[in-house]
Amino acid sequence: xxxxxxxxxxxxxxxxxxxxxxxxxxxxxxxxxxxxxxxxxxxxxxxxxxxxxxxxxxxxxxxxxxxxxxxxxxxxxxxxxxxxxxxxxxxxxxxxxxxxxxxxxxxxxxxxxxxxxxxxxxxxxxxxxxxxxxxxxxxxxxxxxxxxxxxxxxxxxxxxxxxxxxxxxxxxxxxxxxxxxxxxxxxxxxxxxxxxxxxxxxxxxxxxxxxxxxxxxxxxxxxxxxxxxxxxxxxxxxxxxxxxxxxxxxxxxxxxxxxxxxxxxxxxxxxxxxxxxxxxxxxxxxxxxxxxxxxxxxxxxxxxxxxxxxxxxxxxxxxxxxxxxxxxxxxxxxxxxxxxxxxxxxxxxxxxxxxxxxxxxxxxxxxxxxxxxxxxxxxxxxxxxxxxxxxxxxxxxxxxxxxxxxxx
Length: 408
What we know:
By secondary structure, this protein is of the alpha+beta class. The protein has helices at residues 11-22, 56-61, 71-76, 79-88, 108-121, 175-182, 244-250, 273-286, 305-312, 325-335, 392-407, and strands spanning 3-7, 26-30, 51-52, 93-96, 100-103, 125-127, 132-138, 141-147, 151-154, 157-160, 187-193, 197-199, 211-220, 226-237, 240-242, 262-266, 338-345, 353-358, 376-378. The chain has 2 domains: 3-192 and 355-407, FAD/NAD(P)-binding domain, CATH 3.50.50; 196-345, no CATH class. The chain is 27% helix and 25% strand. The model has no long low-confidence stretch (mean pLDDT 94).
């Protein structure tokens, strides 16, 4: 019987292990944490967006980094295969806005339990607290894995599913890059993707933890060319911006040390400037004898009002009935064009996924086998592929892991 070692107990590792076992291999799954699926538990704010209910071509369109490399993987194990798998494991699922698929319970723990059930049902041997030190090849063919310094497992194949470098406390510390590099693979330098952004404007610290729904952003590069726009939820942090639309924007942006980006925030995207002006006129009529700073409570969250007052350059104690048309129109324009100057991404440790990883041209796209070392396979985030938010990154994990598990 063929012996397969899978390194990494996240979604890709568990999927690869179960698939290899299902194909008749003796499988040993090594996980350096004390439990499987640590990172899964915190995805989607603890809800776990398990996949996306779109067609396969749309899956590929949502992978900006090397999406075409995943054709074979996505078509071999589709998002519908993933949904059917979860259903068969007793996990009830639901589809929300943007075709995002979640467990009905809204608990990531239930997704981890489903995976553990899958792994156990296939008789995979799981070794926890197993820190892999080295993957050894002889004559360009896998020979053994050394873990916990002196223990070794001789094996026929190895599947590396160690994740990237985001959320290191969950075990994603870039180990797979070291193994691959030591065996001759090229590593595309990792950078954060799906990450919060720090900005130069100091007033954001006064807005920390304020969350805005139904707002729009436009990202411009140094040539004032639109890079990305989006609509949805945004959250202020003490040094910048975060939330779903900001995380999505981050993967459309390149190196912030080489490109000067601006993010334009539209607080009222449902109204054009003419309609917004009429709305403000109505509010001003209602609060005609009040100070300007006390006239915006129907329009804006309380925390945001002093910032808008300051940015508008309209004196806060000026009576509403004394505000000129020019000042009012300036306010209208401001509400639809608050400009933030991007400083940098938040640290890679906070990223949802890592962009970069093992160079795809050195991996067989039909099998996920290394082109350099026989019987060495890769699955999931360790490969240089990353997608937008919406369940696409987890689908990459399942699909690549299925190919690796099938072909090892």
